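Anyone up for a design puzzle?
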């Protein structure tokens, strides 16, 4: 289940969202073009990735931020930036440019600490923006639970684009992180599920005061639980690529 877009793009330019996406791709391009060998790349991760054991020894605190801009592969960064592009713009418009940047960093650092709490003596480097982006998703759930999101459903050879409310997609995603974190070794499995869950909770809680100031449930009723501007209309058209029939 992959989200591909929401139906309420922001009315203004989300400068911070775009800047964060650009920064992540620049760092990714640097790490993969500058280091041709595994040893050099491992050394880079040792210096800039978040390693829980170092945090436990009161070292490497800046890596809680630097690790947010490092990714381990093309699919890793592509997936993270897709989620940030879909959910970041409306939240940036709601929190303001600077407020959104502060929110993003707090969620990312908090997600790193959540992972550290789950595996405080791990020596495995942790990288990726997914903890911070999980926070964006948590905040989005608070302010815009009924925003429409198009998702691509894939089941073996079957695929279909369907539109669902944001709350359904986000709650399912959060539930998967909790279940996976409970059943898996977050270090051996290669995915920091508790960082995802922790970032989501931090983002959710952080935005609640903003929701209350806007009127709480009255805000939801006034906006129907979606960003307070007209939704975009998308239509699917038949592909112009001709079908090839086997004979």
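Challenge accepted. My sequence:
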């Amino acid at each position: 289940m992959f989200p591909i877009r929401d139906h309420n793009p922001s009315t203004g330019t989300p400068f911070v969202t775009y800047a964060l996406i650009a920064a992540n791709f620049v760092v990714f391009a640097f790490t993969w073009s500058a280091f041709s060998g595994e040893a050099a790349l491992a050394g880079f991760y040792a210096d800039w990735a978040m390693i829980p054991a170092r945090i436990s020894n009161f070292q490497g605190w800046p890596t809680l931020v630097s690790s947010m801009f490092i990714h381990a592969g093309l699919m890793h960064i592509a997936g993270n930036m897709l989620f940030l592009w879909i959910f970041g713009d409306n939240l940036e418009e709601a929190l303001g440019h600077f407020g959104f940047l502060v929110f993003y960093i707090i969620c990312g650092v908090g997600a790193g600490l959540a992972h550290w709490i789950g595996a405080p003596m791990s020596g495995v480097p942790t990288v990726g923006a997914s903890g911070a982006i999980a926070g964006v998703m948590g905040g989005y759930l608070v302010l815009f639970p009924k925003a429409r999101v198009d998702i691509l459903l894939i089941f073996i050879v079957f695929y279909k684009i369907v539109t669902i409310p944001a709350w359904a997609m986000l709650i399912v995603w959060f539930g998967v992180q909790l279940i996976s974190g409970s059943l898996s070794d977050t270090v051996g499995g290669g995915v920091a599920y508790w960082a995802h869950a922790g970032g989501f909770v931090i983002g959710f809680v952080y935005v609640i005061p903003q929701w209350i100031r806007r009127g709480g449930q009255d805000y939801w009723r006034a906006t129907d639980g979606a960003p307070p501007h007209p939704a975009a209309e998308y239509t699917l058209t038949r592909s112009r690529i001709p079908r090839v029939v086997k004979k």
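A detail worth pointing out: The chain has a mean pLDDT of 87.
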